[in-house]
Amino acid sequence: MKKLIYIISFTFLFGCSDPNNIKVIEKYADGSPKSVKVLFDNNDSNNYIIKNFYPDGTLDFEGKVSNNKFVEYRKAYFENGNPKEIVKLSDSTNLDYCCPDGFYKHYYKHGQLKETYFKKNGLFNGLAIKYDSLGNKIAEYQVTNDLKNGITKKFHDNGAIKSIKEYKNDTLVGTAYYFTESGDSLKRHGTNKGKIDFPIKYWKDNGNSLLGVYHNDNHYQVKWTWIDSVGNITKTEIADTVDGQFVTPDY
């Protein structure tokens, strides 16, 4: 019965290929194929598809080879048959190189897309996107040579933007913005040396807000301003540091 299963699997995987073009290059102890070459032309051994298998006959890996280098794509699979990693290669790459340049897709074991990104010169470059196990996009960010550079966005489960931040050489810069699931403003703050800094503003569900700004050049005090939903100032307060930190008041 086990031999029959292997025959069925082998026929399914290579049903459209000329049996004479399939070269078994490694076998398991029971004789089932572990690795094979599928030649495009039986007289040309330099161009082929290489396929590796799990012991049960499920496809483990597939890649297109030309002149002893991977070209066009590489694909890896989980034991349940779902894709694990698919790489659309930017250029030919050595057979033993783990991380060639190209466009990557990684998957969860149940088949849902997990993340996509680009590699250039062996480093992460370009737009990277991450998804949760249900397929919801959770983050997207720009990367230059493995460092965050540019706008980073995070998302709520409903697809609405959760936050927008800007990075330069992996350091948080500029103004960061945060939003509720309905798209309303939740918080906004400045940055200093990669850390949260003033000015900072908070919003409540009813539209009221609290604004905090430095009150002097030495940054020893903060001026807090309470603002109602129509923009009227209802209260102001000057606050000193508490153990070198500022405490956000109730609003």
Automatic annotation (TrEMBL):
Gene3D superfamilies: 3.90.930.1
Matches recorded under SUPFAM superfamilies: Histone H3 K4-specific methyltransferase SET7/9 N-terminal domain
InterPro entries with a match to the protein in the record: MORN_2 (IPR011652)
Domain of life, source organism: Bacteria
Protein name: Toxin-antitoxin system YwqK family antitoxin
Species this protein is from: Salibacter halophilus
Classification of source organism: Bacteria, Pseudomonadati, Bacteroidota, Flavobacteriia, Flavobacteriales
